[in-house]
Amino acid sequence: MVMHYAGLDLARYRDHSAFILLRILEGSVQRAELRALKLWPHVQYSVIEQDLLQYMNRYGMMELAVDATNEISFSERLKALGFPINSLRFSAASKHEMVSDVVLFLTNGKVLLPRKGAEELLTQTREQERTISQAGTIRYEHPQGRHDDLFWAFAMAVHAARPQLLGIDNRIYPIND
User: Fold this and answer.
1) Neighbours of 126 (CB within 10 A)
2) Cβ atoms within 10 A of the Cβ of 138, count?
3) DSSP sequence for 139-172
4) d(CA 165, CA 96)
5) What does the alpha-carbon distance between residue 24 and residue 40 come to, in Å, rounded to a whole number?
6) Average pLDDT, the chain
7) Residue 143 domain-assigned (yes or no)
8) Looking at the predicted structure, is the pLDDT value of residue 177 above 60?
9) pLDDT at 80 over 80
10) Residue 116: CB partners within 8 Å, gap ≥ 6?
């Protein structure tokens, strides 16, 4: 069975909305490869919804991790449409965990990105800057004039696929009486 995990970074006004779809490669070592990416500059959520339905019909998804920090109602709408939603609320700790997973899985070759077709994602990944506030909180930022929407969608997709990439079988099996 082919498994797909996705991340959706939502934005309404200032940034772009972004979608990343990862496919788990079957084999003795679980790895994932980028299957699709989409960037929507300032569109209505109805457009995103229609595009997501096309992705769902074409690939299916084991889990769609959605940034629900400010957009919980859209996440709930997608769940009502049958998407397997994991609503994430961004915090300093959750962002740090996601960034750590991205670094780990890219470094050890568990997540594969093509050199062609994912240039902007690779650029956003390289540009991510870690700073520490005066209060000691870790923050992740992008350079002024740039975006990081694809990066955060990617980080959420990696987060969704994390159990598979670690070799943890979290599927539910029926018990025959």
Assistant:
1) 8
2) 13
3) EEE--TT---HHHHHHHHHHHHHHHHHTT-----
4) 18
5) 25
6) 88
7) yes
8) no
9) yes
10) none
Average pLDDT on 139-158 reads 88
In-domain check, residue 66: yes
HEC string for 99-122: HHHHHHHHHCCCEECCCCCCHHHH
For residue 21, name the pLDDT band (cuts at 50, 70, 90): very high
d(CA 3, CA 170): 12
Distance CA(39)–CA(61), nearest Å, equals 19
Q: Is the pLDDT higher at 152 or at 42?
A: 152
175 within a domain of the structure (yes/no)? no
* Residue 106 lies in domain: 3-165
User: In the chain, how many domains are there?
Assistant: 1
| CATH number assigned to the domain comprising residue 134 | 3.30.420.240
> What is the mean pLDDT of the segment spanning 36-61?
92
Q: Write the single-letter amino acid at 105.
A: F
Percent of the chain with pLDDT over 70: 94
On whether residue 171 sits in a domain, the answer given is: no
